[in-house]
Amino acid sequence: MAQGESAAFSLRGRLQVLVIGLVGILVAGGVVMLSTVAKGDDALGVIVEQLDPADQATNQLEAALVDQQAAVSGFVLTGLEETLEPYQRAVDRQVRALSTLRRTLQSRSTPRARLTAARAAIEEWRSVIVGPQLSAKRAGREAEARALSATGEGLFNAARNEVQALERSVGSELAREQRQFTAAREGITRGIAINLTVASLLVVLVTIFLRRWVTIPLHDLRQSVVAVASGDLSHEIAPSGPRELSELGESVEAMRRRILDELLESERAHEGLAQQAPVVLTLREVLAPHSVELPPGFEFAAHFEPAEGVLAGDWYDVVRLADGGIGLCVGDVSGHGAVAGIFALRAKELLLVGLRLGLTPDQALELVSDQLGELDETFLTCLVAVFHPNGSFRYANAGHPPGLLAGTREVILLPPTGPLLGPLGGTWTSRELALTSGSVLVCYTDGIIEAADAGGNEYGVERLRDCVATGRAGGPTALVEQCLAEVRAHMPDRGRDDLTLVALARP
To answer: When comparing pLDDT for 76 and 489, which is higher?
Structure first.
């Protein structure tokens, strides 16, 4: 078969034909096995539920009949009433045996007829001989009782013969069902052996076809891909095998050509990145938060994760103030990369300088707005807070997502107190609150609340608020980890924005 003809017949079509054939063979074997198993189950059910109990009941019936005869004979000889106790017990056993036989032989015509004859013979013996014989003995008519003993021997033997005939009939039915069960079991054994043989042949057949259709073409394709991956970009990848694998080979060949086309452009881009890398790394180091030892009575935890590369527009920092307090800033500059990083660095340093000089949060924002000058289309959102040793704090929010102040009873939102820092300018105010013992302040950037699931539904402030309320008591570090875990669970893929989350608490 030519290569084009081989590729025209798809791997899916070949596998479908192969699977249909395999399933057909297995289904046929399964149907035969199920039929054989069903016959065996039917025979076993009849044996266990009907004929075994019936066989035991016929033995009990004959034994009860013999015990009744012996007890009656003993009473006739001795006249003692206690000799009739075995007779009554035998009668009870006889009743139970007959009840079992009526129930188990309903669907068996021959044994059922024998059962009817045996019951009639037993009743005749008891009514004609046993009853009158007992009455005569009790009345002192010894001669009549002995005469009935002689006469009753024939009726007893007739009843016993009928019971034995019933026993043989039940035994014959039991033997027939046992032969059917044995035949079914042997059929199952043969079926298992045949199915194992067929399954082994099918495995060999499938292995041969899969090797021809999949293994060999994949091996050839792999060898070509390995050659290209090892650096031999001139190695042409020839498609082979069924249509799907042939198309895969064509796609890999197209990728090889595209790699060659983009190689030169990649080299030029590498030169550009090499020139920018020192700037980016330096900005990242400068934007990193300062290592500050917090004053007693404060605990702090934070997490920062850039959306792309190593330089982002998000930043945060904590500084010690001259009066023993703490300054906290969380900012988000529009955009990413070196330009956004430089703008973030300028804004951050101006804010920290303002806080160190003792400015209030709103005054620090005014300083940044005045000193940044012409901003073009760049803007900054920022939340600034100053914490005093006595537990009070002041904050100003320049268009930033609202902070969350979690106390022992509720979580309070800290909304913006002025516009974002941008080309249009603006004014800001500060608000004063208390960070009491057991409280925690949570600040974040919009990457946290705008994290979206596959349907585009954002995580949102309310979910974050609930998470802060439930995790507040665990401390800042555990709270940050819990909130980030919820955000990542809500967001199936890597987010499109930076993720920044900080928590400051007074335990």
So the answer is: 489
